[in-house]
Amino acid sequence: MTLTFYKQAATPNRVDKSAYLTEQGKIDNVVLLDTRDIITPVFILATNPMVYNANYLFCDFTQRHYYIDNVELMAGGRIAIHCRVDVLHTYRAEILGSVAWVDRSDSTADTTDGYDMLHNDYPFRQDYIILGKYESDSIFGTFSQSVSGINMVLLTK
User: Fold this and answer.
1) How many Cβ atoms from other residues are within 10 Å of residue 72's Cβ?
2) What is the pLDDT of residues 12-55, one digit of tens each?
C-alpha cells in the first residue's frame, strides 16, 4: 500500500482541509500492522526522514485520511506510525452535500447583510431564503424572530 504524507495546517473541526495540505511525498510498500483496525491504524515502514516532517497522511488502501499521533522507532531500521482517522476530511463530500437543520450558530451578531441565522435557539434548514429585515418588532408577529433588534422573515424551500 502507498501512504501520501502531508503537512496539515487546518483546525481539526474544518471539514475540507484540502487548501491546508502541503504534500511532503509518498512512500510505497507500507504494511498495516493490524488489518482489522482502520480507525486507529499502525503502519510499519522503513525509516524515512520525510515522515518526521508530516503530521497527516492519506492511505490508498483504506481510502481514508489520518492524523499522525506518534512515530515509534523499531528495530531493523523500521518505524511504526500510529494514526487516527480524520472523519471530517475523509467524508467531506458526503458532509458538504448533505441537507441539515441548523440547531446552533457560532454568532447571533447581525453585522453584515449576508447574515443568515435567526437565532441560536431556533432550528432552521440551511436552504432557507431571507425575505427581508425589518426594524419593527410587530410587523409579522410570530412569523419573525428578533435578533439584535432586527426582525427577519424566512421562507423555507
Assistant:
1) 11
2) 889 999 999 999 999 999 998 877 888 999 999 999 999 999 99
Give the C-alpha separation, 118 to 152, whole Å: 7
Sign of CA dihedral 131, 135, 139, 140: positive
Please state, in angstroms and as integers, the Cα–Cα distance from residue 146 to each residue in 103, 127, 134, 154, following that order: 17, 20, 9, 12
Q: What angle do CA 32, 12, 16 make, to 5 degrees?
A: 90
Q: Which pLDDT does position 50 carry in this prediction?
A: 92
For 90-148, the DSSP string reads HTHHHHHT---EE---S-----STT-----TTS-EETTEEEEEEES-SSSSGGGEEEET
**Rounded distance, CA 40 to CA 34, Å?**
10
The Cα 54–Cα 68 span in angstroms is 8
Distance CA 52, CA 70 (A): 10
Contact 117, 93 (CB under 8 A): no
Question: What SS3 class is residue 52?
Answer: helix
pLDDT in tens, 70-111: 999 999 999 999 999 999 999 999 988 887 665 555 555 555
